[in-house]
Design goal:
- The strands form 2 sheets. This protein has a 5-stranded parallel β-sheet, sandwiched between helices.
- It has 6 helices and 8 strands, in the order αβαββββαβαβαβα.
- It has 2 domains: 148 residues, Rossmann fold (3-Layer(aba) Sandwich), CATH 3.40.50.2020; 53 residues, Ybab, Chain: A.
- A hairpin with a 2-residue loop joins strand 3 and strand 4.
- Helix 1 runs parallel beside helix 2 and helix 2 runs parallel beside helix 6.
- By secondary structure, it is α/β, with parallel strands linked by helices.
- The longest helix has 22 residues.
Length: 215
């Protein structure tokens, strides 16, 4: 199955997560593509929207391949199956590069407001698609350290291997599609248009304004 666009996938995820309506869940989208989906889910569940910032650590000579991921607190997840692709010197350089990107992105998103506290809340970490699982694992570990009451991973499409890894990190996993072969995330969306940082800031700002009007 191919989703029409992220909006369709977001609406489908909202229906699958409907049992959390009334619990004021915190939806943490992984920028950038998941943010529009996160807005739909947060609105449908009467929750709040924010982002969780993580970055892929890229393989040498193959930036599309993830060897792991890193979060804002410099917590690193490394895929053990890629250990023969990198050395320590390369890893340190790549970590610094991605940390700098995370810091710039946090500064860019600051006009939308400070990060929302996840402690004691039902938290849904959402991405549009998951290939290797490294980015979602880093995001889940970063959020787990903030002591949520329940931690849920949600996505439109994911590989079976990624889901296996993620189930060890989340209290619940919700995935709409698990294709036998996952070629690329965009392959499973007929419209996979790019989401800009400006779009993210605008979406977060509007989501917070809407919440403030209802409290």
């Amino acid at each position: 199955m191919a989703f029409k666009n992220r909006a369709e996938a977001g609406q489908m995820l909202a229906r699958r997560l409907d049992k959390y309506r009334g619990q004021h869940p915190l939806v943490l989208a992984i920028p950038r593509g998941a943010v529009p989906m996160g807005r739909l889910v947060a609105d449908a569940l009467d929750g709040e929207l924010d982002v969780v910032l993580v970055r892929k650590l890229r393989a040498p000579q193959n930036p599309e391949l993830a060897i792991g991921s890193i979060d804002e607190a410099d917590t690193v997840y490394l895929d053990p199956d890629t250990r023969d692709l990198w050395n320590e010197a390369y890893l340190e350089t790549e970590k610094k590069t991605q940390l700098e990107t995370l810091r710039r992105r946090r500064q860019m998103y600051e006009p939308a407001g400070s990060p929302i506290d996840a402690a004691g809340r039902v938290v849904i970490v959402l991405d549009d698609g998951i290939a290797t699982g490294s980015t979602m694992i880093a995001a889940l570990r970063a959020v787990r350290a903030r002591h949520p009451a329940k931690l849920i991973a949600a996505t439109g499409v994911a590989s079976a291997e990624a889901l296996r890894l993620i189930r060890g990190e989340a209290d619940e996993v919700v995935c709409l599609e698990t294709p036998e072969i996952l070629y690329a995330i965009g392959y499973h969306f007929r419209d996979f248009s790019q989401v800009s940082d400006e779009d993210v800031v605008a979406t977060l700002r509007d989501a917070r304004r809407c919440v403030s009007r209802t409290v």
